Amino acid sequence: MNDNKEKHSISQLRQDLVTGDWVVIATGRGKRPHAFSGNPSTVKEPKENCPFESFAEEGPFVPLLREGSVTVIPNKFPAFASGVCKVFSKEGPYTFADGVGFHEVFVLKDHDRYIPDLETEEVKDLVRAYRERYNSIAKQECIAYVSVFHNHGREAGASLAHPHSQLIAIPIIPADVERSVAGSARYFKEHGKCAHCEMLAHELAARSRIIAENEKFVAFVPFASRIAFEVRIFPKAHQHGFGMLKDEDISFVADMLKQSLAKLRVGLNDPAYNFFIHTAPVGSADAYEHYHWHIEILPRTSTWAGFELGTSIEISAIAPEDAAEFLRGTETSK
Ligand SMILES: [Zn+2]
Ligand SMILES: [Zn+2]
Predict the structure, then answer these.
(1) Burial class (CB in 10 A: 0-12, 13-18, 19+), 92
(2) What separation in Å is there between the alpha carbon of 137 and the centre of ligand 1?
(3) What's the gap in Å between 55 CA and the centre of ligand 1?
(4) Which of 12, 39, 104, 133 is most exposed, with minimal Cβ within 10 Å?
């Protein structure tokens, strides 16, 4: 195992335990962690132009939920909206269907306080709002997958400066999720165990890739990190669906999310990032019991070019162990 701590003169191919995806760790150029930080990504926009400042008083937004400091509203320009589900049509050899689903926005209270700035209590509001809306939408007809995600910074696709998360629910299972689910099902069949639990047990023993941990959740840089400084947050106890998150565990997820994002912000000079929840598809628990939900945080530290786009194999210029060591040692103020 310690082989992976050594500097390699040639690159190393690493395979993800669940998806089977390969990545390339090419540390030959000797890039130091600080070399990954760029200009701060936080978009500064005056409050006066912000559509989230006035929605409380005026339409067209009617809140779907108020959870402490977080307000959930329907997306004004939804990528998916209500309609008749699963009507597949044909154009020649092609198949298409209406984009039936839901698209909601979780608006944080303040225009310029981001997740690392929030009190843990406020991050708990956000996680609780995610769970409430997740469970409510998962019950709706024709929903196969509910994606909860957050974009920070323009390079990560955040079109508005005001911090907000989103939920998109769709009538199909995305290929990426399907592959993960199939990978964990295969592992379960072969070993009689959850692949993610196996991974966690190894990470908690090896400790070289862990960046932070509390009693119930752990944040680490994955062995086959797809992007430099990728971070994943897992519940330590096996749980297949995000909707099953218990009240008493919310503060532990909130703490890990806040700490991980604060470390990225301080360590890498406020990079743009996306995070999302990967969870089992909506449906019978029996079919997905082998899955283990988690949060993936992907900072925008590099741009995908021809090789990456052509092969989906990212060339990472820092070893996950070095990225983890750097983030582990990054002190945050709160
Ligand atoms: Zn605002
Ligand atoms: Zn598990």
Answers:
(1) exposed
(2) 26
(3) 10
(4) 39
pLDDT above 90 for 333: no
- Cβ atoms 136, 264 nearer than 8 A: no
Whether 243 maps to a domain, the answer reads: yes
Q: At what angle do helices 175-191 and 195-206 cross, to 10 degrees?
A: 80
266 and 163, same structural domain? no
Q: Which ligand is nearest to the CA of 197?
A: 2
Q: What is the mean pLDDT of residues 201-227?
A: 96
Q: Of the ligands numbered here, which is closest to the C-alpha atom of 54?
A: 1
* Residue-wise burial string across 290-305, b where 16 or more C-beta atoms lie within 10 A, e elsewhere: bbbbbbbbbbbbbeee
Range of the domain at 269: 10-25+34-41+193-328
Q: Is residue 131 part of a domain?
A: yes
Tokens of 47: 């409050």
Q: Are 120 and 251 in contact (CB under 8 A)?
A: yes
Structure confidence at residue 250 (pLDDT): 98
CATH number of the domain within which 156 lies: 3.30.428.10
Report whether 254 contacts 129 (CB < 8 A). no
| Final residue in a domain of this structure, among 170, 185, 205 | 170
The Cα 300–Cα 265 span in angstroms is: 12
Distance (Å) from CA 197 to ligand 2 centroid: 4
What does the DSSP 8-state code read for residue 293? -
**Distance of CA 239 from the midpoint of ligand 2 (Å):** 6
What are the residues facing 25 on neighbouring strands? 12, 316
Same domain as 214, residue 159:
no
Question: For 69-104, what is each residue's pLDDT tens digit?
Answer: 999 998 888 888 877 777 788 999 898 888 889 999
Q: Are residues 144 and 65 in the same domain?
A: yes
Residues 323 and 233 in one domain: yes
CB 171 within 8 A of CB 86: yes
Could you give the number of structural domains in the chain?
A: 2
